[in-house]
Each structure stands twice: as C-alpha cells, then as structure tokens.
Amino acid sequence: MHIHTCLSPCGDWGMSPKKIIEKSLEKNLDIIGICDHNSAENIEAVIKAGDGKGIRVIPGMEICSKEEVHILSFFETLKQALLMQDYVYENLPGKNSPDMFGYQIIADENDEVAGENQRLLIGATTLKLSELVDKIHFLSGLCIASHVDKPVFGIISQLGFIPPDLPLDGVEISWRTKPVEAMRQIPDIKKYPLTVSSDAHFPDDIGKVITRFFMAEPTIDEIRQALSGKNQRRTEV
Q1: CATH topology assigned to domain 17-236
Q2: Considering the entire predicted model, what is its pTM?
Q3: 1/129 Cα distance (integer angstroms)
Q4: Domain boundary assignment for the chain
C-alpha cells in the first residue's frame, strides 16, 4: 500500500508502471497503493498497466505537511486523487533541481517517458497536518500516518506525539520495525489501526512487508471497515 514510482525524485528509474505491476504480480499481491511524493501524475499509467491482470491499484499520495510530517492518502477513484493533487500543488512551493534531488519522470502505461514534473515534489507543502487530514476526508479518502517508527518525516519524530484530536484512519510501520516492537517503543500508536508497508523506492522492495486485508472486495470502504474491524472485516500485520 505504499509504492513510489519513478515520479518520486528518490525513486529508482526502474519503478516504471509496467515494472511495478510485474513485480507486484510476482509477489502475489492483490492490492497495491501508488503513493508518490506530493503528486498523483503516474497513477493512471499504473492502473492502465495493471488493467486485466487481476490487481487493484489504489490511487494515493504521500504528502508532506508544513510540519514535515509525511501522511499517506488513499482514494477510491483517480478523480479524487487528482483533486487532492490540485490542492497540494496550490500549496507546494519550489522548483525541482534534478542534479540535487533527482529526476521526476512522468511515464505512460508502456513505460515510455511522457514528461518531467518540474515541481519540488520532495519538499514540504505549506499546509498544516490537520488541513491535509480534513481535505483527505472531505474527498472521502483514508489518511494514514507514514512510517511512524522512522527517525525522520514521521509524526512522532516531527511532533513528538500524535495530536489526540487528529482523526487518523491508521498509522503505518515500516519494514524496519516489527509491529510488536513499534508498539513497545511508541505506546501512542496502540490506539490506532496498524499497517505495515515497504515504502518501496526500488523494484526489489515491493512486497518486502505486507498488510493482509480480510474483506469482501478491494474498495476504500472495505479497507476502512477492515482497519476499524467492522462487519467481520479485519487486517493482519
């Protein structure tokens, strides 16, 4: 549920739409989330690359708040993700320097280069974390705090705590820490549904760790129910 494409400046050029689908199928994944930094421009290509192959591509983004907290957003439709992208772009200052931060490649479903994003996608937006969460929910999306166990860009490392009035749908633990150890180190996260994700920037990272969703169909509503343990839906990390 947390895969970067070649659009993310820290992502490998090998993270093209077709290669992501190929590697995901090789790892027997049914659902993947495409979450580039502050952009949704490669999601359609990954969806098209996976069309008819039995894999559900969830449109998403990893957004950086004003406080430099990374938050994952997930949506049912590409249109909702692109509306979130519009909101992010309106509040994302700076221009990318490929020599300093890396190239930001927009690709099509055939892995052909369609363009290059000039925005500073690796940067922080001017939006507060609470504003991002509110907008994600306004667009009927899910918001999960990224890699809360990491020493940088996680909500704990940046704020020192999870604001009690912040309506997160869950928190993500990276592959670096086992869930039981993360809960011991960060007791605050016990209140929230947990997911684990690879945060894949390279093809071999895809499927390094996974969250299992026990649900009726691969939709955002079903994922929401699984995270909250409703109607016999559940997750397993």
Answers
A1: TIM Barrel (3.20.20)
A2: 0.96
A3: 21
A4: 17-236
